[in-house]
What we know:
- It is a single chain.
- The chain is α/β, with parallel strands linked by helices.
- The protein has 13 helices and nine strands.
- The protein has helices spanning 2-12, 23-66, 75-78, 82-87, 98-105, 135-142, 184-198, 219-227, 272-280, 283-291, 302-310, 342-349, 377-388, and strands at residues 121-127, 149-154, 203-210, 214-215, 269-271, 321-322, 355-357, 360-362, 368-369.
- The strands form three sheets. Strands 2-1-3-5 form a four-stranded mixed beta sheet. A three-stranded mixed beta sheet has the order 4-9-6.
- Helix 6 (135-142) links the parallel strand 1 (121-127) and strand 2.
- Helix 5 crosses helix 7 and helix 7 (184-198) crosses helix 9 (272-280).
- The longest helix has 44 residues, at 23-66.
Amino acid sequence: MWNEIKLRSKSDHADVDFFPSSPKDWSFGRLVSLVSFLLVFMCGIVLGLSGSAHYTRYFASRTELFFPTTIYSTECYKDSTGFKTFSQPTNLAHTMSDDELFWRASLVPKMEDYPFQRVPKVAFMFMTRGPLPFAPLWERFFKGHKGLFSIYVHALPDYRLSVPETSVFFGRQIPSEEASWGSITLVDAEKRLLANALLDFSNERFVLLSESCIPVHNFPTVYEYLINSAHSFVESYDENTPQGRGRYSRRMAPKIMLYQWRKGSQWFELNRELAVSIIADYKYYSLFRRHCKPSCYPDEHYIPTYLNMFHGSLAANRSVTWVDWSRGGPHPARYGAPNITVEFIQAIRNNGTFCMHNSVPTNICFLFARKFAPSALPPLLNLTQAVMGF
C-alpha cells in the first residue's frame, strides 16, 4: 500500500517526494513538521510581544502630555471632579520634559467662557536652592485666603522641601533642574515655574519670589492690587553702561538689535497673557542661550528685552519687589534681625514716593521686599499684625 501511494505521488509530482516510504518514516516526518510548526509559532509570539511593548511605550509617552499618570487615573472617570483635576491640578508631579511642558502650558482655549466657576488666583512662584526660612511668615500671610492663591516651589533637583502636611507649601514642589546664578538656567527655572503654574487655568497673575523675599502688605491688598491691574510689573530700561548695553552681543542681530536691548530686575509679576507668550517663545530665547553667557546675566535681560520688543504697552516698567542696591556690588544689601524695626518696614511700604497703578498715582509701590537673612524671621513675626496687617 505504501509503495502504491508513493508511486502515485511521483507520477503526479515528479520532482517532489511528499510521502515517506514506510510507516516509520511517516511518523518521523510528522514529528519534524510538528517541531517546525511549534518553533515558528513561538517566534511569532516573541515578535508580537516585542512589537506590542514598543507601541505601548510609544503611545504611553505621547499620552503623558495630556493625561499624566501621576495626575490622572482610571478613578478620574468614576469621580465627578475629573475635569477639575485637569483644569486645576493639585498634584504637581509629572514626567514631562521642558519642551513638552512648555508646549502643553502654551495651549490657550478659544472659548471665552469657562465651563466652571473660575475665581482668578495669584500664583506665588518661589525659586530657591533649599529651605524656605520665611515659610512661617508666608503661612500667616496666606491664612484665611484659600482658593485665591497657588504656590509653586522650584528647588535643587535632589532637595525635598520638608514641611508639615498642614502647610500651604506641602506638595507644592515642582519637577526641577539645576539652576546656576548668572546663567541661562535661571531663565529656564523661571519658565519652568510659569509653565507649571499655567497648567491651573484659574491662575491669572504670576509673581516670582525667592527664599529671601517677604510680603510687606496683607493678602487682600496684594490680591486686589495685582488682580485689578491693567499692567504687568516688569522692570525694563535702557542703560548705556557696561552693565547694560555693554552686555549686548552683536551676534544677536538682526533678530535683536542694540536699541531693543533692555535690562531689569529678575523679580517680575506677569498676567496670564504675557506668561503664555514667554513660555511659548523659543526664537528669541535661543539667542540668549547661545550668546548671553556669564557676565551677561540673561535673567536680567531676556524678559525685559522680549516684553520691550512685543508687549511694551502691557508692562508698568517697574517691579513690585523692593530691593536695596545702594551699597554697590553684584548683590543687593541683606538685612538681618538688627535691621528689623517698625520704621524700616514702614519705609519700604511707603517711602514718600509715588508710582502709577492703572494710570492713577499711588503711594503703594512695593508689595514684597528682599533680601532678608533667616535671622530676621522672629522680629518680622512680631511686626506682622501691627505693621503689615496680617
